Amino acid sequence: MMFTGIHDDVRPQLEELTIDRDRPLVITDADEVLFNFMIGLEDFLKSLDLYFDWSSFALSGNIRRIADKEPIDQMEIGVLLSNFFDQRCAVLPAVDGAAEGLASLRDHAQIVVLSNVPPKHAGKRLLGLKDKGMDFPLIANIGSKGQVVRFLTEGLNAPAYFIDDIPHNHSSVNEHAAHVHRLHYIADPRLSDLLGPAEHSHSRLYNWPEISAHIIRHIETGEY
Length: 224
Ligand SMILES: [Mg+2]
Prior knowledge:
By secondary structure, this protein is an alpha/beta fold. The protein contains nine helices and eight strands. The chain folds into two domains: 11-35 and 94-221, Rossmann fold (3-Layer(aba) Sandwich), CATH 3.40.50.1000; 37-88, no CATH class. The protein is 38% helix and 13% strand. The chain has a six-stranded parallel sheet, sandwiched between helices. Strand 6 (160-164), helix 7 (167-176) and strand 7 form a beta-alpha-beta unit. Helix 4 packs parallel to helix 9 (208-221) and helix 6 (146-153) crosses helix 7. 37% of the residues are buried. The site of magnesium ion (MG) has 7 residues, from loops.
């Protein structure tokens, strides 16, 4: 089968990963699922005399200069985010209950972290995961996630679960790997309040105890 939508820098990471085809698989995002991305970003923005204005679920248009309240350009956001991951991603705070939730899932499923951290900063993301008690394999992805999730779940004889905060990632997984159970979770309550359930998710959940209980119940009974 062809996976033409997978970036050349991502494919080798996938080929290195060993997936047990007979064990349930949990594929979890990192930012705003395992790590408090927004808390870290706000702190980083402050150090640059910038702020986030919380008017929508997007970085674009919401990162503004403290001096004149004007948003920074789209071009600048890319550079800013790359610097943010370089400097902060190893030390981002963990979401409450995330490490405990993954630890409880570990008895029932294999776990892979699928994060759109730039691959050149993957080592720092791994350090952060280990430091917070979430020592799981990481795929540093580029672009949409659906084809990667299809690759990871190809030939799997057990249920698979996808956890992410961003609605278009759920749409992409629905398009390319519709058999995967999709759980929508946004850790930061301020961000969560800006968005309803993702259109292509099965369930919107609000904390890690809910997420792990939901997945374990589904693995054990086949029901939500
Ligand atoms: Mg995220």
